[in-house]
Fold:
Amino acid sequence: MTYRFEPGRTYRMPTHFGPQPGPRQQPDGVARDWKHSPRTFTVSASFLTDAARLERHLPEGFALAGEPVMTVDFHYMTGIDWLAGRGYNMIFVSWPAAFTGRQDKAIGKFLAVIWENLADPIIAGRDEIGHPKLYAEIEEPRLWDGAQIGVAGWMGFRFLDVTVSELRDEAPSPAKTPSDGTMMLKYVPRTGTRGETDLQQVTITPAGDPDMTIERQQTGVSAVRFHRASGSDLPTMHHVVNALADLPVIEARGGSLTHSYGSKWSRDQRVLV
Structure:
């Protein structure tokens, strides 16, 4: 007797062994603690860049919203309940954008790329909610000579450095424009027909996280540097890193450190039409 998909349950390949546990679906009988898991340390750094160059990387239906400020966030997470207490690190690259669809409009952040250092969240995030995730080696956070340092690479090639220095115990300034959330493009190529699309959707993580508690915040002076790569250095993603490395740093726009716990894990993610 063959199997059938259970209504209301999330499946990912291979589907033949039942619903897949993950960030938004625990195994049967295992409780979630949204209010306390994970513990997260975030290092953020922003800079003003060229508007025309930045807009080239926005999909159809999007436009820049406000100043062309790119932000790089390093998130270091520990004590993750859906990973049985383990952790992993990730990097978000985003900038302000507005979306106008056939029915929906939204303004907030456009999430251009995410790097993570563990396969499980990469697969779950790409398949379930449309996160543009890639793999990278992300070093553990390092504080040296008064500066918080974030480093990422791939098989020995270092492609990103971020520092936040001259740290002060104060919260970052609130955003000047309202935000509906963080938007991204979910894309799936068609099997068997090169160059055609099976699925293309704009998805959004609505703003606000009722499950997150912020414990401490600091601000400081930021520096971001992407290192250009050859095809030999980064065979499958040199085009991504080089596009970001080519964006000029016109002016540093500050950085911040945030200690928090709890997360909604994007379980309110939805599609914009």
Remarks:
- The longest strand covers residues 86-100.
- The longest helix spans residues 119-129.
